[in-house]
Amino acid sequence: MERKALQIRNNLKNTEYLFIGLIVLVVIAIIIMMSVYIPAVSGVLSEHADNEVRTALTANSLNIQAYFNGKTESLKGFANRFMAIDLSNKEAVQKACIDVAGATGFRHIGFTEPNGITISSYGESENTSHRAFIKEGLAGRTTHYANVNCDFDDALSDMYTVPVRNPKGEIIGTLTGDCTPFAFSEVDLMEVDGDYTCFYIFDQNGDVVYCDPNNDEGISLGSNIVSMIDDRTVANDVSYFLNSTIDDTVKRIKIGGKQYITAFSSFTDSDWTIAAIVPESTVYAGLAPIISFTVVLILLMTILLLGAIILVTIKISEIKNDIESAIIDGMKVFYTDSITGHDTPARFRENYAVAMKDTATKHAMISLDVDGFKAINDLFGYDGGNEVIKKMSDSIKRNIGKNDFFTRKSGDLFYIFADFSDKNELIALADRIISDLEYQVNEVKLEISVGIYVIDDPHIKSRVAADRSDMARETLKNDKQSGYAFFDASMLEKLRRQKRIEDIMEDSLALREFIVYLQPKYALGDSNEVVGAEALVRWRHDGRLIPPGDFIPVFEKNGFVRKIDYYMFEEVCKLQKKYLSMGYKPKVISVNMSRVHINQPGFVSDLAGICDKYGIETKYLEIEITESAAYENPVKLYEIFREIKSYGFHVSIDDFGTGYSSLNMLKDLPVDVLKIDRSFLTENADEHENASLIIGCVVSLAASLRIHTICEGIETKEQAILLTKLGCNMAQGFFFARPMPVADYEELAYGIKAS
Ligand code: C2E
Ligand code: MG
Ligand code: MG
After folding, report:
1. For a substitution probing ligand 1, which of 538, 552, 556 has the most ligand atoms within 8 Å of its CB?
2. What pLDDT does residue 745 have?
3. CA distance 267 to 684
């Protein structure tokens, strides 16, 4: 049981480890999922952010370039005008400039001659040959200069310059238009998450050419983006973008610790680069629902997982506690005798196995039983009987040594395992227990039998050791007083003999080795004639006549007695049939029926069937059942007796006075004859008077109930006289006749001479 409990506990532990392992696995799986999911989501988000910035930049870049181109194209469109006029006519030139300014919307339009003299719509002619855009225009390049001081009114202006050529393609001057510096608001801007101020135009150095004055990022005219970037490597990359032709290149940068998503795109017609520099927070603000969904999802999963783990852990610990208490309860039931509160045989066997390992100490197995415990149950009831058993257990516990242990096998049968060094210690232990038990249970006189087996084989099984102590104890069964007996080898010999009997019994029956002896019964009183007989079995084997005492107890144990009894009954039927057929009125012959028949269904009808078979009336037969059967199952015994009577058999109680049945039971029991046991007839003079008194009582009580009495075991004339005087009806005993072969009985009872 303990091994089983250990196994259950180990299984439980393994399950726990398995569960922990599963949790770890699930957590790892979730971490892996998250580590894939989160980067995937953040990848998607960042790609989404990049695309948003990139898309806006592309759109705006095209838009702004188109805007700038529109400016230069409109200038170019009016360049021809100046081919058609006389350029030496300053007024005509100025007029043309005024016209163009009016048509294009530039603040001023200036025509610059190759010598650098500019005639403008403003009305002044001055030498502008030092201005870079003029130089470039005269060199044949179309330019767009931002944030230049206008020579005419000193206002900050954007300068657009286109070369003017004659039909031969020779440069005859430049046309320059100035306007207020470009503002992003002038074009239709695509915003990034509501931000219109995040666009910038840089020159190759990273200096701001244009920016929205409303931007919050501290990047304004005069700022240099490259120097503003926190990380030098990133700054170098950006510097590289500004000096190469790139298309919508996205880059993460940090300015003053703040993270930005940027996209750069080179202008096709200039060295400028347009950039979108958007705070990450602005972009991700638009992605907030996805981010919060992801965060909520992760939180939810974590909470769910944690919840599940907590729930399962609580459940497991509950189950663990339940199983643990079930194990403890189970162990208690398994190892604790519910009546005594002491060890069960299972615990005893386990203790025995451990104790036997100690070979340095001598051990003994002691078997203890109260003879006729049934009477205690009858007297005190079932619960009272249990009380006595409890008292017995406690008493044994008190008297055994500290290393000794004991158990109750069943009913009132106890086994004690005791260590000893001297046999006298065992005798003292037996005496101690007996006197303590007798003292504790003083309501009745206990007859305690103690069988002691000194364990002489260290490998002997507890069951075999117990059997041997039982054998010793059983030798005391009929002692009628408390005592102890040691096991000895002769008991084993008896056991072997029993085994031999069992080996041959079936064959012997078939060989008709079992034979009927008859002991005549005599009427007491005037006639002293033979009134019948008792059939007693004998076993003729190997030329020996074996008495029933040697084999009936064995047959009672193995059930073979039923066959023997039926056999004897049938043999008796045959005899009665024979006497009938010879013209005699058969004298009643009684046949002993073991108590093992009592619980056998159909027992009485079987006997009646045998009578039928031989055509014998049941009244010629008497069934003897020992009184001891009464305390095994009194109710059943009543039923059987009634049934026997109902078939017309005579019925007698055998060995009356040896059991524990009360005289009271006689009044209810449908019985014909009481066979008073010979143990009442004592040689002891002191007891003589008492015995006579008791027999007298029984006889007169039986008489009043119209029950016949027969006294068994009359060996002397005095006994015969006494019994006659006490009113006993019949007698059976050696004084009259011993059990005899059938032929002798026939001669005695009927005068039939053996042929
Ligand atoms: P029981 O039925 O009480 O039979 C009487 C026993 O007392 C017989 O012993 C008989 O020989 C013996 N007896 C008779 N008169 C005297 C006497 O004056 N002095 C002494 N000392 N003994 C006397 P037996 O034949 O040895 O039978 C012993 C027991 O065996 C019987 O006791 C009965 O219980 C049992 N038995 C015998 N035959 C059968 C049988 O066929 N079936 C069953 N189930 N039991 C049987
Ligand atoms: Mg008998
Ligand atoms: Mg008898």
Report:
1. 552
2. 97
3. 146
Looking at the fold, whether 72 and 15 belong to one and the same domain comes out as no
For residue 5, report the distance from its CA to the centre of ligand 3, in Å.
54
Task: Give the binding-site residues of ligand 1, using a 6 Å CB cut-off.
Answer: 519, 536-537, 547-549, 552, 561, 564-565, 568, 592, 594, 624, 654-655, 678, 712-715, 732-734, 739
Question: Which pLDDT score is estimated for 679?
Answer: 86
| One domain, residues 365 and 321 | no
Q: Which of 428, 459, 487 is the last residue of a domain?
A: 487
Q: Label residues 487-510 b or e (16+ Cβ within 10 Å = b).
A: beeebeeeeeebeebeeebeebee
The average pLDDT across 663-670 equals 81
| Whole-prediction pTM | 0.54
Query: Ligand 1 pocket: which of 592, 628, 651 to mutate (most atoms <8 Å of CB)?
Result: 592
Does the pLDDT at position 133 exceed 70? yes
54 domain residue, yes or no? no
Strands 413-420 and 362-370: antiparallel
What is the residue range of 472's domain? 345-487
In this structure, the answer to whether residues 162 and 87 fall within a common structural domain is yes
113-136 as b/e, with b when 16 or more CB fall inside 10 Å?
beebbbbbbbeebeebeebebbbb
Ligand 2 centre to CA of 518 (Å) is 11
| Mean predicted confidence (pLDDT) in 209-213 | 93
Q: What is the reported pLDDT for 333?
A: 78
Residues 327 and 360 in one domain: no
User: How many Cβ atoms are within 10 Å of 694's Cβ, its own excluded?
Assistant: 16
Domain end, chosen from 117, 148, 179, is at 179
Q: Are residues 639 and 503 in the same domain?
A: yes
Quickly list DSSP for 682-728.
-S-HHHHHHHHHHHHHHHHHHHHTT-EEEEE---SHHHHHHHHHHT-
Nearest CA owner, ligand 1 atom 3: 655
- At residue 683, the pLDDT reads 61
Is residue 319, in this structure, part of any structural domain at all? yes
What's residue 31's pLDDT?
81
Q: Enter the tokens of residue 482.
A: 């408390």
Give the ligand at the shortest distance from the Cα of 675: 3
**Is 293 inside any structural domain?**
no
Q: Say if 695 falls within a structural domain.
A: yes
Q: Please tell me the total count of domains within the chain.
A: 5
